[in-house]
Amino acid sequence: MGVTLSRWTMSYFAAALLSLILGECLMTAGYGFPSAPIRAPQTLVLVHLIAIGWLSLLLCGALFQFVPVLIARPLHSNSLPLPTLVLLVAGLAALLSGFLQLSGTIDVGAWPFPLAAGLLASGFALVLYNLGRTLWQARPLPLPARFVAVALLCLAATVALGATFSLVFAGPVHSEALLAITAGGLPLHVLAGLGGWLTFAAMGVSYRLLAMFMLAPELEGARPRAVFWLGTGALAVVILGGVAQILRDVTILPALCVGALLGFAALALYGADIFYLYRARKRRIIELNSQMAALALISLAAAVALIVVLIATNRLSDQIGAVVFLAAFGWLTGLGLAKLYKIVAFLTWLECYGPVLGKTATPRVQDLVIEGRARPWFLLYFLSVWGATAALLFAHATAFRMANGVMLVATLAIAVQLLRTRLLSDLTAEVPLPDGAHRPHLLVSLPNST
Amino acid sequence: MPQTFVDLDVRPILRGGGEPFEKIMQTVDALAPDEGLRLYATFKPVPLFQVLGRKGFAHEAREIEGGDWEVLFRRAEAPVEGEASAAAEAPDTDDWPEPAQQMDNRDLEPPEPMVRILAALETMESGDVLQALLCREPMFLFPELAKRGHAWQGGFEPDGTTYKILVRVGEGQKPAA
C-alpha cells in the first residue's frame, strides 16, 4: 500500500494557473462584468475560464494526488489524467469560442457549443470514473472522502446542466423539459458548481490538510458529520428539488430557501470546526499556507455574511456578482493558492529527495520556499480581492479594474514563487543534488526507478 | 494493471457460528490471475495468512470499524502499476525480534516522521526491527520502504489516533515464507 506521486498533477496546476492569470488580465482590461451585464457572453467567458480553467483543473489535479491519501488506496489510474486534461482544456477552448461567438467577437459556425458539451462531459466523466473507482474500493469512506464523493456528484450535476444549456444554445434541442431547464436552471448550475463541486470538496479536504499541517487532531465526531449531512441535504434540496420545481413549472424559490437554511447551518458548524482546528493545533507557529488559508476562510465567512445582509435588505439579486466574486477569488482561489504553496513544495521535495532520504543530508521541505518573500504578495492578493469586492458593491467599475490589476500582479508574483520552488531555485545554499536524487521536471512527476 | 480485489465478507458466517474456511478457499480458487481477495472477518485471521501465503498470496491486515478486520490478499508476484509502490508484502510479525529501536514521532510535523524513520533504518542492521509511533498512516513512506526492500506492518492502536508501525530492515526482498 501507499501513495506515490500523481504523474500529471503539476500539469494540471500549470494549466490552472495560466487560466487564472488570463482571467485576471481580462478583468483588469475591463472585459465582462461589471462593464458588461452579468449574463452577457463576455462575463460567461470569464466565469468559465475561472470555474473550469482555474478552479476545476486545480481541484482535479489536487484530488488525483490527495484522494489516495484520504483513503489509503492508490489512484485507480495514474495515466488517465493526461487524456482527461487534454479533453478538459479542449472543451474549455470550445466553450469559450461558443461564448465569443454569442458576443459577436468571432464567427466560426455552429460547432462550438455541441463540441464543448461533448469534450467537457467526456473529460469530467473520466475524472468521475477515475476518482469514483478509487473511492469505491475504499468503502466505508472516511469523512473527508465522503465530502469529495458528494462533490463529485455535484460536478456531474453541474456538467449535466451545463451540457443541456450548450445543446439548447446551439439549437438542436426541442424538448420542452430541457428548454425549461435552460430557461430557469442557471442558479442551480452556479450553486451545484460553486457550492457543491468546488466548495464542498474544498471543505472536506481542508479538514484533513489543516489538521495535517498544523498538527491538530483529526475531526471525526458529531459536528463534522452534521456539516456533511446538512451540506449534502442542502445540495440535494437545491439541485434535485430545483430541477423538480422547474419541470413542474413552479418557482424554485422554496428549494433555494430551504437549501440556504441547511447550507448556512452546515457552514456555521464548519466554521466552528475550523476554529477549533486552529485553536487545538499543537504547532504554535504555523506555516504561511495555514496563515493564508485562514484569510481564505475569513473570506468564506464574509461571503456568507454578505449573502445574509443582502437577503435582509432585499438586494441579493442586484449584488450577486459581488458575492460570487468574493466566493470565487477570496475563498476558493485564496485557499487554492495558499495550499498550492505547500503542495508544490512538498511534492517537489518528495520527488527530488525521497529516494535518498536518510542516506545523505537533504534539505527540508521548508528550505525549498522563502516564506518571507511570498507573504507580502499573498497579503496583497487578499487585500486586492476584498477591495475589488467593495468596488463591485459600490458599482465602481474603474476601482474594480484597478483592484484586479493589483490581484494580477500579486498572482503573478505568487506563480513565480511556485515556479522557483518547483525548479529548486530558492534552496538557501546552492548544494549539489546528492547521488540518486533527480531534479524534478516542471510539469510531470516521474516515479523514481530503482 | 493494478490488481482488482474480489470482496468476501465472512462476518455473517462467523457471527452465525459457521466455518467460513471452505467458502474462502472456493473464492480464492475462482480468482483470476490478476485478482486478489479482500476479506472481511470478525478477527485477524492469522492461520489463513500461512495457508494463502503458500498459495503465493501476500497479505495486509488492518482493523476496521467495530473491531472487525479487513485483509487484502494479493498475489505476491503480480506486477503493480508504476513503481515499486504497493506490492510490498505485509509480513507476519510473530517471528520478528523485539524492536531494536523505538521512536515516538507523533508530535512531529510531516514529513519529519518519514525522514526520521528512513534515517534510523539506514543505521540499523539487516533483520533489526524499528518501532515508530505516528499520528497518521504514513502514506508516502510505504513506497520508499518497498523500494528499499524493508518489510513493515502497521496499524492504528485501539485508541484510534496512534498509528504504530514496525519496520524490519532489509527483509522485504526475500521471498515470503
What does this structure look like?
Chain A: Keywords: Membrane, Transmembrane, Transmembrane helix. Chain A: This is Transmembrane protein. Chain A: The chain crosses the membrane at residues 12-33, 45-72, 84-104, 110-131, 143-170, 190-215, 227-246, 252-272, 293-313, 319-338, 378-396. Chain B: Residues 80-111 are annotated as: Disordered. The complex is a heterodimer of chains A (450) and B (177). In chain A, 73% of the residues lie in helices and 0% in strands. Chain A is mostly helical and 450 residues long. The longest helix of chain A is centred in the last third of the chain and has 38 residues, at 316-353. Chain A starts with 8 loop residues before the first helix and ends in a 28-residue tail after the last helix. Chain B has two domains: 4-87, TusA-like domain (Translation Initiation Factor IF3, 2-Layer Sandwich); 93-168, TusA-like domain (Translation Initiation Factor IF3, 2-Layer Sandwich). Chain B has helices at 11-15, 21-29, 46-54, 112-122, 141-147, and strands at 4-9, 35-41, 57-63, 69-75, 101-104, 129-134, 151-156, 163-168. Chain B is globular, with a radius of gyration of 17 Å. Chain B is of the alpha/beta class and 177 residues long. In chain B, the strands form two sheets. Chain B has a four-stranded mixed sheet with strand order 1-2-4-3. The A-B interface holds A 1-4, 68-69, 72, 74, 76-78, 137, 140, 212-213, 215, 217-218, 282-283, 346, 349-350, 354-355, 357-359, 362, 365, 447-450 and B 2, 5, 60, 64-65, 72, 81-86, 88, 107, 109-111, 114-115, 117-122, 135-137, 139-147, 161.
